[in-house]
Amino acid sequence: MAEDNRKHYVGIDLGGTNIAAGVTDRDHKILFEHSVPTGLPRPADELAQAVFDMVKDMLKDHGMDFGDVTCAGIGIPGTVNQETGMVEYANNFGFDHVPFVTMIQELFPCPVFAENDAKAAAWGEYLAGAGQGSSSMVMVTLGTGVGGGIILGGRLLAGYNLAAGEIGHMVIREGGKLCSCGRRGCLEAYASASALVEAARKAAKRQSDSLLNYLCGEDLDKINGRMVFQAAKAMDPAAVQVMEEFVEHLAVGVANIINIFQPEVLCVGGGLSGAGDQLLTPLRERTAPLVYSRSSQKNARIVAAALGNGAGIIGAAGLWEMGEGV
């Protein structure tokens, strides 16, 4: 992309619940942002139009138009093929080889780049967050599932079929719990936020005097990750055991990642990363002896993501930096 004097970049984080978008400057600072409900289910062309209309209105609200924008980027929860313009698969949207990227590109009067949403968030953390200034970074996101992105030598690893980075679907326990992907024993089945909450509900049911029962008002369906950390901090035995087992599983996955890629930074993102050192300190302790390079003077730094929900917007807006000549 040729240089010009327009230094604004649109980043779009397309989620199952909300469409979030923002405008960044060349230093990856979000200048303003907005979100609207995604409104699923809806046809792909209608969704593409909704994304365009939302961005157009956002720009107008801030006295701008597409003439002020260098390019745009969008993170999509699925397998994205930038070359063909296809979203090859996105289960939450019902997309199976749908030319959604092409639809977006035909609507926007500026270049549009696209990537998987978890990879876009990882790219954002690499550009302006926990991985800024590093040579390599792997991000592990702990949410409903376990996702992430891998940046090596300043490039986001796509894989031969563009599906690299499915961190949650490495098996950490052969023959273990059934995962949503159909395999057994995946990291996602043990170390996602959903897995943590499920384990906490079972523990609270077994131990009726657990603080977890008090925090959720005796309604186990209301238990969330924040309650688990709160109860564990108060040294509630049930919550402490749940947390210890969760960290043990996560440490196996993190050590596997470090052993394979040896990144400078291992970034933990997603909602659970908000627990900070309550999660990261034991994670570092459990991971250290599992790392093959543990005697090396250089080892991956395990840190929390720094950008929060802004990572997806910043990463999408910065996808142009992976292109040549930009």
Describe the protein.
It is a single chain. With 326 residues, the chain is α/β, with parallel strands linked by helices. The chain is built from 10 helices and 13 strands. The protein is globular and about 60 Å long. The mean pLDDT is 93.
Descriptive keywords:
alpha/beta; 326 residues; globular; 5-stranded mixed beta sheet; 35% helix; single chain; 13 strands
Brief rundown of the structure:
With 326 residues, the protein is an alpha/beta fold. Helix content is 35%, strand content 21%. The model has no long low-confidence stretch (mean pLDDT 93).
Number of helices: 10
Could you tell me the strand content as a percent range? 15-25%
| Arithmetic mean of pLDDT | 93
Q: Structural class given helices, strands, pairing?
A: alpha/beta
Specify the biggest β-sheet.
5 strands, mixed
Evaluate the radius of gyration: 20 Å
Order of strands in the sheet with most strands: 3-2-1-4-8
SSE map:
Elements: E1 9-14, E2 18-24, E3 30-37, H1 44-61, E4 71-76, E5 79-81, E6 86-90, E7 95-98, H2 100-107, E8 112-116, H3 117-128, E9 136-142, E10 146-152, E11 155-156, H4 187-191, H5 193-206, H6 211-215, H7 225-233, H8 237-261, E12 265-269, H9 277-287, E13 301-304, H10 310-317
Parallel strand pairs: 1-4, 4-8, 9-12, 12-13
Antiparallel strand pairs: 1-2, 2-3, 5-6, 6-7, 9-10, 10-11
Helix pairs in contact: 1-2, 3-10, 5-8, 7-8, 8-9
